[in-house]
Amino acid sequence: MSAEFRTVAGGGSGIAYAEAGAGEAIVVVAASTTPAPAHHLLAKDRHVFIFADDGAAPESLAGRIGAALAALGVRRFDLIGHGAGAAAVLWLALARPAETGAVVLVGPTALAARGGALEQRLGELKRPVLALFGTKGAHAPDEGDRYRTLLPDCHLMFAYESGNEVERDRPEALAFIVREFCERRDLFLVSRDSGLTLP
What we know:
- By secondary structure, the protein is α/β, with parallel strands linked by helices.
- It has one domain (about 15-199): Alpha/Beta hydrolase fold, catalytic domain (Rossmann fold, 3-Layer(aba) Sandwich).
- The protein has seven helices and nine strands.
- Helix 2 crosses helix 3 (about 85-95).
- It is globular.
- It starts with a strand and ends with a strand.
- The model has no long low-confidence stretch (mean pLDDT about 90).
């Protein structure tokens, strides 16, 4: 499925994004706006918006994305944050809890210094969060345990035979688990404490 690349006003300046598909919105923050294989799979039944982590402070980037979504008329969305984009996604969920559904963090990089501003706020996030790491990734499992400790409703999973970029290494698995988590939320197939691994 092809993606369309556009620019929209966000936080007083233009912000580039890509979109594909139709249906309920999933907002992605990744290294670039180029869709990964997993995003194309998700776009078969969801409206996928992809914003790039442009190196700005995560809280600032989250504000610009939130303004862009408001300009686009997107009032309800699930969130996916890849790598360093996870921090911006968490800030966005904190800023717009009523509009946020489920939050999926894929191979999230380490949080800022312990006790930092984001870490101090994570206990306020009441949305369900899935932290998904590849078993060959550089940030698992210690970082996964840290997210699960800090977030009130965090599920932790690992994808076999994948590095940090699960969206490229295991696109079918990622698309499946994102759909399950976003749709089932509290009925998700992995308990908060299990840490089971996705085959």
